[in-house]
Amino acid sequence: MFDKHRQRRVIYNDDADQRYHQFSASYGYDITDEQSFINARTTPTFNTHVDTYVWCVGNGADPPWGAMEHSIHPCLGSNEHAADVIVESCHAQGLEVWGSLRMNDIHDSFKAASLAETSEPIKAEHPEYLLAPERNRDLPRELIEQHLWSALNFARPEVRRYRLDYIERNAAAHDFDGYELDFTRFVWCFPPGQERKCAPLMTDLICQARARLNAIGARRQRPYTFAVHVLDSPEVSLNLGLDVEAWL
Predict the structure, then answer these.
(1) 11-247 domain in CATH 3.20.20?
(2) Cys-Cys with 24: which of 29, 78, 225, 231 at CB 3.0–4.6 Å?
(3) What pLDDT, on the 0 to 100 scale, is given for residue 70?
């Protein structure tokens, strides 16, 4: 059990793409079994100043990133098992492990040709849940609006429930010591111009996430650390609809 208020030296955030064939190859990783998977990025953090290992669980899709599930290394079998391998190896070295969820990842805004090709099926199933229409894909790339066609709109209660349910399900499925909500990959959650007005909606989501993680911790009879990854300016965060002061 880890003291959630302890002083941490280095928090190591792993975006976890070594679990996939195409990324492992580009990095030069030779992953053939669970040990070589651990050795790719995790083993080098052992016996260092790293106190906390943060494992990116994905973008909230199940499986993460949708069609990329077929690219998981055969020796791992699934995203779920890959996460468990990391947790077990870190715990054996005395490192705490957090899961980290990208709250509104929109890599697909510049990779997908249509909603049908986006990496989270709910986007194609419910285009009304998004911040902008699909036609925005054809706008000049320097415009923010060009990226919002694949971003979920957290002003909608359906979107907030969808995210909360994933957080609870994923946090409960693994022996994480904590859970991080990453609001930096990417930063847009609300319709442009309505961010401050919508901030209480995200504050309510944060409260509900804390309650759900508390319940998991109570069942496990140990504290469950809750972290948020936000921009380093409270004012900028608030302008994006993230009232970090209220969360604290």
Answers:
(1) yes
(2) 29
(3) 66
